[in-house]
Amino acid sequence: MSFRPEKVANEIKKILAQPVVDISNGIKAGFATLTAVRISKDLQNAKIYISLFGKDSKPGALISELESQKGELRHKLGKELRLRAVPELKFFLDDTLDQIEHIQNILSTVKSDSNSEE
Predict the structure, then answer these.
(1) Which of 81, 61, 74, 64 is nearest to 19 (CA)?
(2) Which one-letter DSSP state was computed for residue 91?
(3) If we measure between CA atoms, which residue out of 64, 10, 60, 71 comes closest to residue 37?
């Protein structure tokens, strides 16, 4: 098993973290964090997961802005990564925190129901 995809994904995460934050701040979409990068084994496709915080956050606006600036982000990767081909980028909203909150709400509801039955 090769660890190269993991290493490349970590490098992509380091390189794109600040530009993602800058783009989010530029369009006032909320506080953005690059949470994960998943790259294919052939290093041709990278899925970029972004978490967005703030009550006035605009996830749709951020994803569409990142898609429109994909060329510049790939150019930045090409300058800093030593790869034969720069991976194609696809951006996704990371909703892991929302899922955790939902599960915690369910668990607290179940716990309070079980306590009231005793």
Answers:
(1) 74
(2) E
(3) 10
pLDDT 10s digits, 21-30: 999 888 888 8
- Residue 9's nearest CA partner among 59, 34, 35, 46 is 46
Token duo for residue 112 = 């309070």
∠ CA 58-91-5, nearest 5°, is: 145
Q: Do the beta carbons of residue 47 and residue 82 sit within 8 Å?
A: no
Domain of residue 80, residue span: 4-117
If you write DSSP's letter for every residue of 40-70 in order, what string do you get?
-TTS-EEEEEEEEESTT--HHHHHHHHHHTH
- Report pLDDT digits (tens) over 55-92: 777 888 889 999 999 999 999 999 998 888 999 999 99
Provide the CATH number for the domain around residue 77.
Answer: 3.30.300.20
Query: What pLDDT score does 4 carry?
Result: 87
Q: What predicted TM-score, i.e. pTM, was given to this entire model?
A: 0.78
Question: What's the total number of domains in the chain?
Answer: 1
